[in-house]
Amino acid sequence: MSKKVLANDGVSQSGIDKLKAAGYEVITTNVAQEQLQDYINKHEIDVLLVRSATTARQELIDNCPSLKIIGRGGVGMDNIDVQYARDKGLKVINTPAASSASVAELVFAHLYGGVRFLYDSNRNMPLEGDTNFKGLKKAYGAGVELRGKTIGIIGVGRIGQEVAKIAAGVGMKVIAHDSFAEKAPTVSWKLFDGQEISVEIPLVGKEELIKTSDFITLHVPAQKDYVLGKKEFEMMKKGSAVINAARGGVLDEVALVETLENEHLSFAALDVFEKEPAPEITLMMNSKLSLTPHIGAATNEAQDRIGEELADQIISILG
Length: 319
Prior knowledge:
By secondary structure, the chain is of the alpha/beta class. It has helices at residues 13-21, 36-43, 58-62, 82-87, 100-115, 118-128, 133-139, 158-170, 206-212, 230-235, 253-261, 281-284, 300-318, and strands at residues 4-7, 25-27, 47-50, 69-72, 91-94, 150-154, 173-177, 186-190, 196-200, 215-218, 240-244, 265-270, 289-291.
């Protein structure tokens, strides 16, 4: 009898193909959270794969004896009771490196869009580009270059290091803060002609980073307290900006809106929100916010890597 994998939040076709080639049955039905336990038991699911939409808590783990593996497509596993599952004998897996480059590129999509007002121009050109062209040209005529500016990276894990690579290539000064880093990390990458570049990312204190950065980008796991709140926003340089493509809840959205409204920050960018999938309307309506709906890892390349890495791990564990 073939082993069954339920990819409740979806998985790439390349991942499905790998699993099927190894004799697994892959089910991509999206089961509602409240019906998930019954579905797993009825169909004797061996492996549950989730992204950020589905949770795997103690009750589900206790009441689904057929489960052997819980897999998270991506990095953060705050929607899974990881240690509890492992204590119960389940394997818990994820794909921490698969989407790092995609998230880092989205950070820079927001950065470039922010310093050149693309996020607001794209709203207003369709509305009044034909009647107020000169007015809009003037409104968006004070952009700045990223080259030579300082980017502060809070959290220099895999994604933070990918951000550092792009920033260094752009010509930015890179500084970082990480409560868990024991020494300054060195990042390396190859150019198109095979040359290899290595750069050490200097670590500084959190307060120094906040006060000296032109742009701050967050790459930290979910946590109890805000990493950036009212106090930190007020410490930031006037005209600076902040990007959160990490987790909702690591940044105080109310304080952020207040700081944008008093014009202390030039703009902010959010890919994640405290309330998903229904972010606060004050965020949706703010003209100084560049917004995306949690799509940091949503590239074809990242999704293929995620699916294939999950498949490889499952096959390695279960055969």
